[in-house]
Design a protein that fits this description.
single chain, alpha/beta, N-(1-d-carboxylethyl)-l-norvaline Dehydrogenase, domain 2, 3 domains, 9-stranded mixed sheet, 5-stranded parallel sheet, elongated
Length: 468
């Protein structure tokens, strides 16, 4: 039931959705989605796809996970988890409700809806790398059948769904199906396409995953309604928007907002250090204002799959429209300079103890990009290790969540987490990730020098500590 008050834009979209006239095949899909009897396929079983699969299974949907990594599939089929924050018990509960994993894309034809949760990284030129989306679409295309819903969740620039995903699905489909077009009255020979950006926040224990509203934008109105109904089955709210492009831009705005504000406090931190001001105390004081301010915190650089990457997606796309995103690019430059800032302060701390960087033994605490998770994607720790080694330092690391670091897209470290024993054998202990498991008082007591990039030693007074 709707209020007599003038509706807001989101309310208007949801009201308009109620007016959508669905063809028979779409009504059947909608009924199964509402009854939670629909079969859902999730492509990509990483930090986004696996949690999403578990939510769907918990809600009663029949879920099949797809991944090209046979090892992941083997682990899941054995009831084991490869993500620290997801317990094996969660996998077992999902399997008891019918969740299964496979590498066989032919099984996509069995699904009522297919959700694409694949990586969208940058290439070596800091340009969007959509090869995962494109290759997944090509692999899925032959198995798309009439009336299926396909939803892309991977973060990308506005236009990707329409310009890349849909053409790839249509070109490779064996039945000659087409994505339902806006305003068309096609009853047969179509499938439905939408975009709904993931909003995962690894390590967040204050907001339940299902409490995060889900933004949904369809290629046309029927797709919007089908996708919104699916997500309303596992999230408390689906926010319908008018198009895939609006949904794609929404995710970029969310992450660019964070990127810019983090760049601001990082720049303020560098200035505050020169002025002898504690930026952390400044932020805490400013955060007492009940309006007009939201606290963001400085650090050694950006990490994760979103904030260090997403702004460049929009900057790249903007060039097509002869537009320079100067503000976004400046924020990127500030944040990318932070690892070098950290290395500078390590050198400064060593110099104060009459030690050279060349030959110094440094123990880095934390490889993950944020506290209490096992995710090292785009972690600034990776860059700091390379910079320290370039200066001649011997670098070891400790991370309770990441026992080994092998080869990635942009690194090949082959390192194993070192024990936290005899800290005085190191010339410097560098805190890069403020994991809750660390006993910072004991660390300061045992270490010769502590360089703290996260304010983890707040409240501890010692001449050994260099905060940066």
């Amino acid at each position: 039931m709707f209020s007599h008050a003038k509706p807001g834009r989101a309310e208007s979209n949801e009201a308009n959705a109620a007016q959508v006239v669905l063809p028979q095949i779409a009504r059947e899909r909608l009924d199964r989605l509402k009854a939670h009897t629909a079969r859902i396929g999730v492509i990509g079983l990483g930090y986004v796809g696996l949690p999403l699969s578990l939510l769907l299974a918990e809600a009663g949907f029949k879920v099949t996970g797809f991944d090209i990594d046979a090892k992941k599939v083997e682990e899941l089929e054995a009831g084991r988890s490869y993500i620290f924050r997801i317990a094996a018990e969660e996998i077992e509960r999902a399997r008891a409700k019918g969740f299964t994993a496979t590498t066989e894309f032919a099984r996509l034809s069995e699904q009522d809806a297919i959700l694409l949760c694949v990586p969208t990284p940058l290439n070596e030129h800091r340009e969007p790398d959509l090869s995962y989306v494109e290759n997944t679409a090509k692999s899925a295309a032959p198995w798309i059948r009439e009336g299926q819903l396909v939803v892309l969740e991977s973060t990308t620039y506005p236009g990707t769904t329409e310009e890349l995903l849909i053409p790839a699905l249509e070109a490779g489909n064996r039945q000659g199906l087409r994505a339902q077009a806006q305003g068309a009255a096609a009853e047969h020979g179509v499938f439905y396409v939408a975009f709904s950006p993931e909003r995962e926040d690894p390590g967040n224990v204050t907001v339940a995953r299902r409490e995060i509203p889900k933004v949904v934008g369809g290629h046309e109105a029927i797709a919007t309604e089908l996708a919104a109904t699916l997500y309303e089955g596992i999230f408390t709210r689906a926010v319908r928007v008018s198009s895939t492009r609006v949904a794609e831009m929404t995710k970029l705005l969310e992450n660019i907002y964070r990127c810019v504000n983090i760049a601001l406090v990082n720049e303020m931190k560098v200035l505050s250090l020169r002025m002898g001001v504690d930026i952390w105390e400044v932020i805490d004081a400013a955060a007492t204002k009940p309006f007009g301010f939201q606290p963001f915190y400085p650090g050694p650089g950006l990490g994760g799959h979103c904030i260090p990457i997403d702004p460049f997606y929009l900057s790249w796309k903007a060039k097509e429209f002869d537009f320079n995103t100067r503000f976004i690019e400046l924020a990127g430059e500030v944040n990318e300079a932070m690892p070098a800032h950290v290395v500078q302060y390590v050198a400064k701390g060593l110099n104060a103890q009459r030690k050279a960087m060349n030959g110094a033994r440094v123990l880095m605490l934390g490889m993950a990009y944020k506290k209490d998770i096992d995710d090292l994607r785009e972690s600034p720790s990776l860059t700091v290790i390379e910079l320290l080694r370039a200066e001649g330092a011997e670098v070891l690391y400790n991370d309770p969540y990441i026992p080994t670091v092998g080869r990635g897209r942009h690194y090949n470290l082959n390192m194993t987490s070192a024990p936290l024993d005899d800290l005085d054998q190191f010339d410097c202990v560098l805190i890069m990730t403020d994991h809750s498991e660390y006993d910072y008082k004991a660390i300061v007591r045992q270490a010769r020098l502590v360089v703290d990039t996260r304010n983890a030693t707040k409240g501890i007074r010692s001449e050994k500590i260099v905060r940066c």
